[in-house]
Amino acid sequence: MKIKCLCCNDTIESKSTHNLVSCKCNNCYIDGGQDYLHFGGNDFNKILIIFDDDTEILASDEEEYKNKYEEWEINRIKELAKNESFNN
């Protein structure tokens, strides 16, 4: 998952847990890698969340973002469970 700052057009991605990355104008940040999504910033109308399937949602669209994040989380857990059963 990535976010794009609509102020400076910087697209940023956290590569691992506790890898906090900020855009070049410091309007927004992202953290969590593929383990979780933690993001924030000065203006959520200027932060675009880009999911792994290339779906783009403004951070200020809280309901749509929460629904898509829940879908992402369910898919991530399914993938982890699939990999776990494959390894055993």
List the helices and strands and how they pair.
Layout: E1 2-5, E2 11-13, E3 21-22, E4 28-31, E5 38-41, E6 47-50, E7 56-58, H1 62-87
Antiparallel strand pairs: 1-2, 1-6, 3-4, 4-5, 6-7
Task: Give the spatial strand order of the biggest sheet.
Answer: 2-1-6-7
The average pLDDT is: 91
SSE order: EEEEEEEH
Largest sheet: 4 strands, antiparallel
The oligomeric status of these chains comes to: single chain
Rg from Cα: 14 Å
- Please report the number of helical segments: 1
Strand content: 25-35%
What does this structure look like?
The protein is built from 1 helix and 7 strands, in the order E-E-E-E-E-E-E-H. With 88 residues, the chain is an alpha+beta fold. It has one domain. It has a 4-stranded antiparallel beta sheet, with helices on one face. Strands 3-4-5 form a 3-stranded antiparallel beta sheet, with no helix packed on it. Strand 3 and strand 4 form a beta hairpin. The radius of gyration is 14 Å and the shape is globular.
